[in-house]
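Comment thread on ticket #2218

A.B. wrote:
> Attaching the input chain for the structure job we discussed in standup.
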Amino acid sequence: MYIKISSFTRWVTSALCLLILFSAHASAQTISLKGKWRFKIDAKDEGVQAKWYSSALPETVNLPGSMAENLKGDDITLKTKWTGSIYDSSYFYHPRLEKYRKPGNLKIPFWLTPAKHYTGAAWYQKDVEIPADWKNQRVILSLEYPHSETRVWIDEVEIGSAFTFVVAQNFELPANLKPGKHTITLLIDNRIKAINVGQDSHSLTDHTQGNWNGVVGKMFLQAGSPFYFEDIQVYPDLKKKSATVKIELKGLASVSSTGKITLSAKSFNTKNSIQVKPVTVPYEIKNGTGTLEINLPMGDKIATWDEFDPALYRLTASLFSKDGKKDQKDIQFGMREFKAVGRSFEINGRPVFLRGTVNNCEFPLTGYPAMDVAAWERIFKISKAHGLNHMRFHSWCPPEAAFIAADLVGFYLQPEGPSWANHGSSIGEGKPIDQFIYDETNRMTKSYGNYASFCMMAYGNEPRGKQVEYLTKFNNYWKAKDSRRLYTGASVGGSWPVIPNNEFMVRAGARGLDWGKQPESFSTYARQIEQFTVPFVAHEMGQYCVFPNFEEMKKYTGVYRAKNFEMFQEDLADHDMADQAKDFLMASGKLQALCYKNEIEKALRTPNYNGFQLLSLNDYPGQGTALVGVLDAFWDEKGYITAKEFKRFSNSTVPLLKVPKFVYTNNESLNASVEVAHFGKAPIPNATILWVIKDASGTVLSKGKFDQKSLPVANCIQIGDIQFGLSAIQKATQLNLEVSIEGTEFANDWNFWVYPAELPKAKSNFYYTEILDDQAKKVLEEGGNVFLNAAGKVVKGKEVVQTFLPVFWNTSWFKMRPPHTLGILCDPKNPALANFPTEGHSDMQWWEIVNKAQTMNLEDFPPGFRPIIQPIDTWFLNRRLALVLEARVGKGKLIVSSANLSPDLKASPAVQQLYFSLQQYMMSENFKPKYEVAFNTVKDIFESPSKIQFNTFTKDSPDELKPKPKTN
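C.D. wrote:
> Ran it. Output below, let me know if you need it in another format.
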């Protein structure tokens, strides 16, 4: 941080002492500053000139806390100047959304809505009593997580300023400060100024934590020895069973000191405590500084740290000066070595596969990060319950509590500099941000570098500017300075230039599902990563959306409200589908889970693939509301997949199945190859792999086991083949194949569908047509039945692009980039689907039917009308859509399909089977459509466009829609 010392105190050292949670100065005394502070907003920047620090401020707030929590700031209006990009401006202009722009009913869709909003200067003030026995001691003011630029006065003397997003801000009080009452005044400014990290950086954007003003962590005054530990860094060496301890000492600039330093360490979370023999060495401080490098033998038996056994030590460093001064500092560290070996990661010499999620600083109750260890332990334990072992922090660095918790839980972290230098900023072009990134990452490593979980680091997210030159130098700087972790220039999309000296790659390009073609489970990402010679981690994998969970709104009891959810819910009701919200959530959620399963499995079966970072396990509340998580923004389950179910395909050990397809006819065989990805604690000797095939009732159709095989720590472990003839299956059937490792929790399963190769021939009693022609109208008028295959003929709804995959990230941020739907909803008990085994949502058998099929917009259909098969629209538009519908028209009955369903015997098996099921339904007594619809209403689907069309009203666009940046 930047400290400017006034002339009053320029003889005092400018050094800062960062106190970590486990620090305790033996002679230190602490005064907490939590509680009531006086307060005043300085919207006109007049406080400094008017010397507000010299008089009592008129209002009060509680600290730690933000202005919004204290209900200070401006009301939210259409003119609120947010920090964050808005690429879909339709909210501000579209007549359909006018009611949400009115005062009293203001509902914004871009992100959560805070109670108050304010960017600018704000003043905080508190009186303190300095004890008489603090004389001749060093006194610091420590503020954890102010946001973000702070100036400090003691009485009427300014003692320093600081600007950082990543560590506590510490200020040294004047050495000649007299005992008694004094006034501390803070001026905190959260505006983007000369140092612009980027308005969408998660360190400050309204998309995530919000650009809040205040102090939210520990706040205290502390007195201690004038000779003290400025910095202690521990460098483990597993081969030598020792640790190198590098120490910086500080004291008064004009004073020298000699004495002894003793280092001792012991494990504190292992079954048996390990005590390290203390080491004592002399020290000397000259002209206020001193350095030491001490070798600390850890003993013959050392406990190493990793995801399975997160053993930790506490190092105690004690300083005893010859004149009786004392100082003590405790450091938490782990004996571990995280490195890249060729194209693989290794932890303590064992291969590791990173199964990660991106943390985007979503804290919907407070709007700022959790500052306590327990909250972070909960997050990491939930992530572990889903089989993950890694977390990236997108363009922000979490507080110290996160590192402490990750150490305890055993979780690998990739914090980043607080920058997404793209929107409104850039790197490598001589701007102040260039030096700020170095300053911030140095602060991060100084404060958190001893934590075992701090395994990786990047500058930040997807920059622009002269990035190759800048980030190459950035990597070289850090590789030379600190070998305890691995470095990559930036976490980037697939179009960003490659930084040649990255120690690992975090980039897109080798992710996603190629479901424009028939789904299978044998392809890999090998071709996409073959150019890289270092470990590869997939950047922001997934991003599959689900429909909003409106029951979540009641959880927003803090400083934020989910006005975006309220808007989507009301709009859904306006489109006559309020009663379907829960069904939309569950059906879209099942498709989302299917996508995550298949993408993660594809990564696990790819040779030389070393990890993924989901975007993300929990929902992202900004950028238009990106509902991409299987968990909500509170890290709670939504109801359609449990942690245990998710962990089956995302774990340290995962059985995998390689098949060319998931839909078969009964004149074929199901031929599958089994392999295992095993990145566990150790090889599994003599593993027995079991398999079983069951039908939907749970009846076992076949089972077997493979010869015992030892599983090394690796992926692509070939187990054997399964062959199962399907001729005994005479009707449409759903099968499930499960593969498990005997005596372990490791199991995985896949659904398959088998249809008769030849369906029964029956003469239809309805009129089949591909045009709603005069003959169809006549048949209906005379009381007959009509099947209309309207594939390719739809006009009303033609703008809706449907693929088997759901919406990516969200349609607002990407300006309605397709696809626009979230899967399908149907009733598996509907007699129309009696011969087409299905659940109420998309699964693999629907791919042949749904992918790229048109949807019909039923905007003019009667209230309450529900189709047989209903595509779920993006929640920004909530169009009432249909893929297959039935209705009474005139005296007759009609089924319309915008999917290409026909009696064509050359159609794919699932298409034939669904058409057969509908055919049988139409010829049965169950064919009794509930709703009556006018012939012209149906006909209008093929004549008139939708009344409401999407318009962003915005020329700018997110990175992915822009031309590829120059490679410098």
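A.B. wrote:
> Thanks. Noting for the ticket: Confidence is low (pLDDT under 50) at residues 1-27.
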